[in-house]
Amino acid sequence: MSETEDVDLEQFRNETRAWLESNCPPEMRKPATSDADVFWGGRNTKFASEPQRIWFERMRDKGWTVPDWPKEYGGGGLSAAEHKVLRAEMGRIGARPPLSSFGIWMLGPALLKYGNEAQKKEHLPKIAAGLIRWCQGYSEPNAGSDLASLQTRAESDGDDFVITGSKIWTSYANYADWIFCLVRTDSAAKKHDGISFILFDMNSKGVTTKPILLISGYSPFCETFFDGVRVPKSHVVGTVNRGWDVAKYLLQHERAMISGMGERGVGRPLGQIAADSVGSDAQGKLDDSMLRGRIASFDVDEAALAACAERAVDLAKAGQAHPAFSSAMKYYGTELNKRRYEILMSAGGVDALEWESERSRQGARPRAWLRTKANSIEGGTTEVMLGIVAKRILDLPGA
Amino acid sequence: MALVLTEEQSMLRDSARGLISDKAPVSHLRSLRDSRDPAGFSKELWHSFAEMGFAGLLVPEEFGGSGLGFMEAGIVMEEIGRTLMPSPFLATSVVAASALNRGGNAAQKSEYLPKVSNGSLLATLAIDEGAKHRPLQTSLQAVRAGNGFKLSGAKALVVDGHVADLFIIAARTAGAAGEREGLTLFLVNPKAKGVSIERTIMVDAHNAARIELANVEVNADSVLGEVDQGAALLDGVLDIGRGAVAAEMVGLSEEVFNRTVEYLKNRKQFGKLIGEFQALQHRAAELYVDIEITRAATMKALQALDTDVAKAASSVAVAKARAGTTATRAVQEGVQMHGGMGMTDQFDIGFFMKRARVCEELFGDASYHTEQLARARGY
Description:
- The structure holds 2 protein chains of 2 kinds.
- By secondary structure, chain A is α+β, with helices and mostly antiparallel strands.
- Helix content of chain A is about 45%, strand content about 15%.
- In chain A, the strands form 2 sheets. In chain A, strands 1-4-5-8 form a 4-stranded mixed beta sheet. A 4-stranded antiparallel beta sheet of chain A has the order 2-3-7-6, with no helix packed on it.
- Chain B has 3 domains: about 5-120, Butyryl-Coa Dehydrogenase, subunit A, domain 1; about 125-230, Butyryl-CoA Dehydrogenase, subunit A, domain 2 (Beta Barrel), CATH 2.40.110; about 230-375, Butyryl-CoA Dehydrogenase, subunit A, domain 3.
- Chain B has helices at about 5-25, 25-35, 45-50, 70-85, 90-105, 105-115, 230-265, 280-305, 315-335, 350-360, 365-375; strands at about 125, 140-145, 150-160, 165-170, 185-190, 195-200, 210-220, 225, 270, 270-275.
- In chain B, the strands form 3 sheets. A 4-stranded mixed beta sheet of chain B has the order 1-4-5-8, covered by helices on one side.
- In chain B, a hairpin with a 2-residue loop joins strand 9 (about 270) and strand 10 (about 270-275).
- The two termini of chain B are about 30 Å apart.
- The interface of A and B includes residues 271, 272, 300, 304 and 396 of A.
C-alpha cells in the first residue's frame, strides 16, 4: 500500500469514527436481545423502536446497509480496505448492523455476479433500502444434504415458467416478500444440470406457507408450497439449467454468514456471565474449575476463529482465497456456537431451565440454546462441510 | 494490516524455504542425532543464515542486522518447523536478540548485537527451573556482593545451553518465588567460574542443557535492564519467544499434515485408497481447519507483537495455546493414519511428534496459556 493510500485510509477512519460517534444511537451500540429487536425490512415491516429507525435510516442514506456494493445499486461504494475500516469502527463501539437481510447476505452477492443489468437495477436498490424482504427456497423434504436432487418443477409455458412443488426449512417465508428459488427446468438432465435459479413474488397466486414449530418453541422456518405458480422467464438469474452455479456461489456467502453467527467478541466475556450464577472464589476465579477450563478453551478457540475470519476476508481481497474455504469456516463457526450455548446452559444451571416467565424473558436462553442446534444443519451440515473440505481443498479420492 | 503476506514477506519465505529444504531436510536432523554431533547443529548452515541476514533478522540495521519484524521472524520459524532444522535461530536471533535489543544499554547493544548479526555469538535465555514453565516462580538467587552480584541456583531446558557464548539468566534479586517484583536479568559468561553445564539429550534431538551456578560473580554492568524490575522485560521477551515457537509449530503441523494427506492418497487397503474412507476424510478435514485457524491466530499474534509487544499478551496466549493443541493433534493423527509405518524410526513422522512435544513445553504449554487468558479476562 502506498503512503498516500495509507493517509487517505487514516482520514477515512477518522471521519468514519466521528460520524458513527454522532450518528449511532446509544441503544444501537449493544447486541440485539431478541429476534424482535432485529430489523429485517420488507413491505410489512415495523420498527421495534425509534433508535432502530433512526440508525437504519442514517446508515441507509449513506449506502452503508451494503457498504461495499456499488453506489448505483444503493451501496456505499467502499473499497475493500475502507469496508474493513468501517467494520472495525462499528465493532469498536459495538454498533449493530442496521439491517439484517438474506437479500444482503445471500441474494445480493449472487445477483452482482450472475444477474443481468435489469435484474440488478430492479432488486439491489430495494434490498439496500430494506424495502423487500427475501427468503430462500432451497431445501425440499427429499433434498436436504443432497440438495441437487430437488424435485420442484418449473414447466415452460410461453414466456412463463409454471412452478409446482414444495420447499422446507424456508427461513421466515411467512414474512418474506420475494423468494429466490431453485427449480428443476430439465428433468432428463443429470441432477446438477437441470436446475434453474429463479426469483418471484411470494404474493403470486399459488404460493402458501406453513410455519414449522421447532424444539425451541419458535417457528423461524416454514414449509412453502407452490401450486402452479406462474413466473416470467425473465426472472431466471443466469442461464436456464445452470442454476447450480448460482446456487453454489450463493451457498458460499450463506456459509460465511452462518459461520459468523453468535455474539463473537462483543458484550461481556463468557467467564464473567458464568460468574454471575456460579460465583467466584477468593481469588476471583470462577467457582467451578472444570467449567472455568471449558470456558477458557472456548475463549482461545473463539479468538483464533476471529483471526481466521479476518484472514479469510484479507485473503479474498488479495485473490488468494480458496472458494471452498467458507465451508471450513461454516463447520467450525457453527460447532463453536453450539459449544458457547452448552457452556451458557451449564453456567446458568437451574436458572437457564425456565421456559415461560418474565424473569427468564420467556426462556430466552434455553430457546437460543436449542436454536443453535440447527446451526450445524442449516446451509449444509457439518458432515457435508467436512466432505467439501476433503474433496475440494484436500483433493482426497472419491470424496 | 492485512493477515496475508506482503510481496517482500513472500520473497523472504521463498528464500528461507529454498535454503532450509535444500540444506536441512529432516535427514539433516537425523544425521546430527545419529552421529551424536557435538554441536547439535550445522555451523556451516548457521554461517549461511548469517550471510542471508537471518541471524540478525530482528537486530536493528545500526548494529548490522536486517531490522525486520516478528512477522518475518515467524516466517523463518515456520520454515524451520517444516524440516525440524536444529538452529540457533530461536534462542539467539529471536529470544536473546530481543532481550538485548529491548533491555540492553548502549554499551551492551554495541558489544553483542553486531556479533549476533554476523553469526559469531550464540546466546540463550535461561528461565525455567522446575518441570513446568513458571517464570514468576524464578528462585535462582542473585545477592549483592561488592560492586556486583553473586548468582546461585539451577536452570533447565536452556536451549543451546552447551554451545552458547552468552547466557541471559533470570534471577531473583528481591522478593519471593511467585512475586513479580524482584526479578532481574543478568548477562553471564558460560565460562565464568562456578558455572557448570550439562548437555541434556532430549527426545527431539534438539539442543538443551541444564546449568548450575554456584556463587558465580558478575559485575554491575552485567545487569540487563533494571534491577528488581525485570518482569516486564521478561514478559515481552517471552511473548516474542512464544510467538516464534507458535510459528514453528504451524510449520511443523502443516508439514506433518501434508505428508499424512499424501499418504492417504497413495496407501491402499481393502482394494481402495484409504483416503476414500469417510472416517479418515472427515478427520483430515477437521485437522485442516484446525491448522488454518491456528495459522491465522499465530499471524495475528506476530502482528500484535510488531505493533506493540507490551499489548500482545492475549493474542500471544491464544496463538501458543492453539499451536500446542493443533500440533499435538496433527502429529497424533499423523502417526495413527500412517499406521505401523508411523511407529518406525526409519519414517520421519516420529521426529515431528517428538519436536511437537518439546515445542509444547517451550515457554508454556496450552494449559498455561489458556489459564493466562482466563486471568486476563477476569474469571
